[in-house]
Amino acid sequence: MQAVLNNPFMIAGYHSPRYFCDREKETAKIISALQNDRNISLISPRRIGKTGLINHVFHRINESNKDVRCFYLDIFPTQNLNELVNMLGKALLGRLDNYSEAVMRRITNFFKSCRPVFTFDPASGTPLLSLDIKPKQSELGLEEIFAYIKESGKRCYIAMDEFQQITEYPEKGVEALLRTYMQFIPNVKFIFAGSKKHLMDAMFSTANRPFYQSTQKIVLRNIPIDVYRNFALRLFNHADKKLTAEVFDYIYTVLFGHTWYMQFILNELYSLSQTSYSTADVDELIRDVLQEETATYKTYCETISKGQLRLLKAIAKERKLAKPFDSDFMRRYALTAPSSVKLALTALINKTLILRDDDGDYFVYDRFFAIWLQNN
Q: Are 128 and 119 a contacting pair, CB within 8 Å?
């Protein structure tokens, strides 16, 4: 039986369906795709909730079939193919079978690129398996890992978050290498999740790229306001706390419904001693955040050019901007030639400081940073 959380508005991790809002259509789509042997490319900005969705999907799958093995890897920290291969090996090996001397011997004999090392957790006594694949053996190690998974015969679903990170690796041909091995493992399906839309679109929608049209594409958007409102009010009411629709809608409007920022403010609001809330309470919580993050935001501003900063502030003050090259907009904020604005906009998008929504409007990605920019 899972414990009840002190605060139901989680800002990290996944607990259970009770604390997970909506995503019913996306959950059903992903489960159907995986069960019917389709890989998924899941695209959304950071902090919209794709990691929580993946964990929710895996929770649902294991509720109905505990024999399926589900693995989640955040590959954002990896800097090269070798680090990816070692992460993959550490996550997968030894979790496809129950530990036994025979299994350990089979794994040890299977790998030629390295010698797996078995140890035991000092607290629980659980066997642990680690790999140390050397850089020169990365490709062979990758081949052996996938061959091992295939030979196991176990149904596996592997989610690789921030998948666009592989485009930053120094090695050439990583996309083709991964695609070569992944397409010939019938018992394994993949979720390729990414937060940089332009990079993910290029990987999966460009005809000359290895992963072209190899997945079912799902784009994760904001949770609709009515659904999110019902979720939040229910959790507040369950604790005899009164959150009105007016206050919730104010939060949603200020934060553009962006999941993590919504969860953060709802979490803070829920933790206050009173049992009813106003928009003034919300404003005070946001002011506290801005005060705490001022040093960080100043550092952000110091890392970009003056032209980029001028455009960033202008977009923040507009909240959303449809036409960045409009003469009235440029004149209002003392911006120079359209060519300069285009260069600055491209740089800000590449740095994920600016995003573009489904309606084509540009906005500052970090909602708290955007509010800070409006006032500085």
A: yes
Check if the beta carbon of residue 261 is closer than 8 Å to that of residue 367. yes
Q: Residue 144: CB partners within 8 Å, gap ≥ 6?
A: 110, 111, 112, 113
The pTM of the full predicted model, rounded to 2 decimals, is 0.90
Close Cβ partners of 36 (under 8 Å, ≥ 6 residues apart): none
For residue 132, give both structure tokens: 């140390």
Helix (H), strand (E) at residue 318: helix 306-318
Q: Which alpha helices (H) appear in 36-73, and where do they start and end?
A: 50-64
Six token digits for residue 316: 């923040």
User: Which of 35, 29, 24, 33 lies closest to 64, judged by CA?
Assistant: 35
Helix spans in 239-278 (H): 245-254, 259-271
Tokens at 68, concatenated: 């399926």
Q: Rounded to whole angstroms, how far apart are CA atoms 257 and 29? A: 22
The pLDDT tens digits for 205-214 are 999 999 999 9
C-beta of residue 356 within 8 angstroms of C-beta of residue 349: yes
Q: Report whether pLDDT(178) > 60.
A: yes
**What mean pLDDT value characterizes the chain?**
91
What average pLDDT does this structure show over 282-294? 97
Q: Is 298 helix (H, G, I), strand (E, B) or coil?
A: helix
d(C-alpha 46, C-alpha 53), whole Å: 13
What is the C-alpha separation between 324 and 347, in angstroms, rounded? 14
